[in-house]
Specification:
16 strands; disordered C terminus; alpha+beta; five-stranded antiparallel sheet; 54% helix; Beta-Lactamase; binds adenosine-5'-diphosphate
Length: 560
């Protein structure tokens, strides 16, 4: 009935523990894992990482274009400043334009239009190219006509533009293939808006690389790569050939193969050219996938840690609960164990006091019972005291050279009568040639008494007790053998823990505190030795206590 109630209570506590763990830890942890998981899935589905990279790429491209534009404006302004005044005569103008072209080999044409006429000069070095010559002739003619017609309106329009410069650009033909040319037209500074004076230069595509593009691309790549989590960038400026093929004008180092991840068309200065960007040796998609994979992996590891933590917590709490249960068992066992001998002592003492016992044999028997019960009480109280000292870390041992054979024999002597009285066959074998051993006599005697008591307590049908003391492998071995109920393999490792008692019904019906073997183990370890058990359920047990012959005991104070 009592057992059932306790089991019920234990079950309830367990349920409460599971509920607390579930509500306070498991649910929030599972929710957190789930939320993270679905967020990652959403990022993976919507290609969130790719979008972030693309946005950053767009920013880098916009910044690069701005930088290139700024430099193009400066270069054009520098060329404009060298332009001749509209008042000079045509010859002088031609000379000055030729000088500008000579000093700036990257310019292909330079021209000037004012009310006095139109001067158009081209880079002499390029005149060997058939297409360039044709371009020169064509531009000279068409510009002359066009300026004559549109010059004034054009000048007004350009005047309103930022810095008074207007850029244009497009594909041109050269003997080497398709090329690109950018043109800049400007209002000459010396004139007021009502006097038309326009100047212009054109930039030869292949020269732009060296004077402008390459430097800025390289600078941007090395500057911005550090912002991209260590992934190096590569950039390119290209234009489209007639067949729709990409023709690079400038490429930063490490571009390798492939198309740009993100591109941006120049829309102010180098119209017709495009800026492209990508990662060196990898792609945005691959990086995105890697990131998602890594995040999933981290989430999986964290989830494992959480689950591991939960399992560990449950394990520890269950262990603590089991220990608490053992402790409460211990209290009731000990009270029971104290009450029985005390009741017997009182009963026999009262009977003797009343003087009703006349025969001396009977009296002797009563005295013996009183002595035996008080010895049992003393042993129990000693065990409890020792245990509490060990728990508090105060237990001290007094090691002295001892004839261990004598010690074992004397200890057994005070039990011999009881052993035989209980109908036990007793076999004692003590090696006579044992060397003296440094031990705490009282402690070793207590260990032996505990082992012998257990052998007596846990023997049912076949009552046999054997005690052997011999020397083997540099140690003195003390064996206590019984043919009793035995211990299952699973429980053999637990019986040395404090309060532990096996589940055998005989153990339940036998008084005990569950402290004896934990004391034996503590005592043995304090002597630098070890305790082992060999047992077969239903056949009996053998406890072997080994004390090393050489060397000093390793600890004089150790916790059980
Ligand atoms: P107890 O006060 O219960 O005897 P012990 O620490 O001495 O405490 O023993 C712990 C448990 O080990 C016992 O409750 C019993 O279940 C088991 N045990 C100890 N010695 C024997 C033995 N010789 N035979 C069978 N079981 C034993």
């Amino acid at each position: 009935m009592k057992l059932k109630k306790r089991k019920l209570l234990g079950g309830f506590n367990r349920f409460r523990l599971m509920l607390t763990l579930g509500l306070a830890v498991l649910l929030p942890a599972a929710a957190l894992i789930y939320v993270n998981y679905s967020q990652l899935r959403a990022i993976e589905r919507d290609k969130g990482i790719e979008a972030i990279f693309n946005r950053e790429f767009q920013e880098v491209l916009a910044f690069t274009e701005k930088k290139i534009n700024k430099k193009a404006y400066t270069m054009t302004e520098e060329a404009r400043d060298l332009f001749p005044s509209p008042d000079t005569d045509t010859q002088e103008k031609e000379k000055k334009l030729d000088l500008i072209l000579a000093q700036r080999p990257w310019l292909s044409h330079a021209f000037l239009y004012d009310e006095k006429g139109f001067v158009f000069r081209s880079q002499p070095g390029l005149m060997s190219d058939k297409y360039f010559r044709e371009e020169h002739d064509h531009m000279t003619e068409s510009y002359r006509l066009w300026f004559a017609k549109e010059g004034k309106t054009q000048a007004e329009m350009i005047h309103r533009r930022s810095k008074g410069i207007s850029f244009s650009g497009g594909r041109v033909k050269r003997e080497s293939g398709d090329s690109y040319m950018a043109g800049a037209m400007f209002v000459l500074p010396q004139t007021s808006s009502n006097k038309v004076a326009l100047g212009g230069v054109t930039y030869e595509g292949c020269s732009l690389k060296g004077i402008l593009f390459q430097g800025i691309l390289d600078e941007m790549v090395s500057q911005k790569s550090t912002d991209q989590g260590g992934n190096r960038l590569a950039m390119m400026i290209y234009h489209m050939e007639t067949g729709g093929e990409m023709k690079p004008l400038a490429v930063s180092a490490g571009w390798g193969e492939g198309k740009p991840e993100v591109s941006r068309k120049f829309d102010d200065v180098f119209v017709g050219l495009t800026l492209g960007i990508k990662f060196q040796g990898t792609s945005v998609a691959a990086l995105g996938q890697n990131w998602v994979r890594r995040s999933f992996l981290i989430l999986a590891c964290l989830s494992l840690v959480i689950v591991g933590g939960l399992v560990l917590t449950k394990h520890i709490v269950s262990k603590e609960m089991a220990l608490a249960r053992l402790k409460s068992d211990f209290v009731s066992n000990v009270s029971h164990e104290l009450r029985t001998p005390l009741a017997l002592i009182r009963l026999y003492a009262e009977t003797l006091e009343l003087g009703r016992i006349t025969t001396s044999d009977k009296k002797q028997e009563y005295y013996r019972i009183i002595r035996k019960e008080s010895e049992r009480l003393t042993a129990l109280i000693n065990n409890i005291l020792d245990f509490s000292r060990i728990e508090a870390g105060h237990k001290e041992y007094e090691f002295r050279q001892t004839d261990i054979g004598d010690l074992v024999r004397n200890t057994l002597d005070s039990y011999r009568y009881q052993i035989e009285q209980q109908g036990f066959a007793f076999e004692e074998s003590i090696d006579p040639d044992l060397p003296p051993v440094r031990v705490d006599r009282e402690a070793i005697a207590r260990a032996l008494v505990n082992l012998v008591n257990n052998a007596l307590k846990y023997s049912a049908d076949e009552k046999f007790l054997g005690v052997k003391l011999y020397r083997a492998n540099g140690a003195v071995k003390l064996e206590v053998i019984d043919h009793g109920i035995g211990i299952t393999r699973r429980e053999q490792s637990k019986i040395f823990e404090k309060f532990y008692r096996t589940g055998d019904p005989l153990v339940h019906n036998t008084k005990g505190s569950g402290l004896g073997l934990s004391l034996v183990r503590h005592i043995t370890q304090a002597h630098g030795g070890e305790i082992a058990v060999e047992s077969t359920p239903g056949k009996g047990s053998k406890f072997v206590l080994s004390l090393p012959l050489t060397g000093k005991p390793s600890v004089s104070e150790a916790r059980a």
